[in-house]
Write a structure and sequence with these properties.
three-stranded mixed β-sheet; 36% helix; 317 residues; 12 strands; five-stranded parallel β-sheet; alpha/beta; single chain; globular
Length: 317
């Protein structure tokens, strides 16, 4: 299903393949039948979990290819082996914040000259629509735009996959900050709780990535992930949980003013998180614009049976 080789397998290199999303993209690419390569960086040293994860990919049929961001030629050699490069480098402040490192990948792809498609690390809010974002969280979008600008200046074919909140960080916790599991008794509701938000299971984001990376329809386009049944207000998400458990949570409605009241007193990573939550739950930045069927992942790939949030939340009951 390659746009060039009439049914030959697409060779895909996943960078950041041991991360939370990256490992899912590796699995999805293997399941899709792509010839899958994973960048193995010497920097992992004695990180046993990452080494074991890489070896597990190898057992499933993936190829491990060595390369380091501190060694340009090693990156060039790595990307020369494939048709498509997918980056899943982390871009959140409370984990490793690696978005700018992708500029080195862009340089390597440019020099190699053989890559037919590059998917940089995006997946969340569309950075091209976040010029107004609050600092320090705005840094994420500025850096993603810097990477996009470099890709386009180098004339590298690309796809930007964006548009949803990962369920692990926004769904299972009913969008509460500082936890990844649902609250037992009370829940903060942002604003009036009626702003539409988009949720996606990370496994589904990985499947959409594996589908779109060699699809001629998505060449040099932005693809939005908007699974129709997962476009929910904050209140609707909470109500799904209440229906599953048969218990009503005590709700505190938090105004925008109160939500941002003491933001300057927080650590930088927390400030960035508050800013992102504000743009999602108070401004509605994920759903304040129209998206055509030809640029929406669940319409392009209806064969992906995506996980609805009621199914997703069942494991927490």
């Amino acid at each position: 299903m390659t746009e060039t080789n009439f049914g030959e397998k697409t060779r895909v290199l996943v960078v950041g393949g041991t991360g939370s999303l990256g490992r899912r993209i590796v699995s999805a690419c293997l399941a899709e039948g792509h010839e899958t390569y994973v960048l193995q960086r010497p920097e992992i040293g004695v990180d046993l979990e990452k080494v074991q994860l890489l070896l597990s990919f190898k057992r499933l049929g993936a190829h491990l290819v060595e390369g380091s961001f501190s060694d340009h030629q090693s990156l060039v050699s790595a990307v020369k082996q494939v048709d498509v490069v997918v980056s899943a480098m982390s871009g959140v402040h409370f984990r490793t914040h690696n978005i700018p490192v992708q500029l080195k990948l862009v340089e390597a792809i440019k020099e190699a000259g053989n890559v037919k498609r590059f998917l940089p690390s995006e997946f969340g809010m569309d950075p091209s629509r976040m010029g107004h974002a609050m600092p320090p969280g705005s840094e994420t979008f500025e850096q993603k735009m810097e990477v996009r600008n470099a890709i386009e200046a180098a004339g590298i074919p690309h796809t930007y996959l964006v548009g949803a909140c990962f369920a692990a960080y926004f769904g299972g916790n009913l969008s509460q900050m500082g936890t990844l599991v649902p609250p037992k008794k009370r829940v903060d509701i942002y604003g009036d709780g009626n702003v539409k938000v988009i949720f996606v299971d990370e496994d589904d984001m990985a499947k959409y990535t594996a589908k779109t990376l060699n699809d001629p329809r998505t060449m040099n386009k932005t693809v939005y992930v908007r699974p129709a049944d997962n476009i929910l207000t904050h209140l609707e998400l909470v109500q799904i949980w209440e229906k599953l458990t048969g218990k009503v949570l005590e709700k505190t409605y938090v105004s925008a003013h109160d939500f941002l009241a003491d933001i300057e007193d927080k650590e930088i990573a927390h400030q960035a998180g508050l800013g992102h939550f504000y743009h999602i739950y108070y401004e509605g930045c994920l759903t304040d614009h129209e998206v055509g069927d030809d640029e929406e992942a669940s319409k392009l790939y209806p064969e992906v049976k995506y996980t609805r949030m009621d199914e997703y939340l069942k494991i927490f009951v």
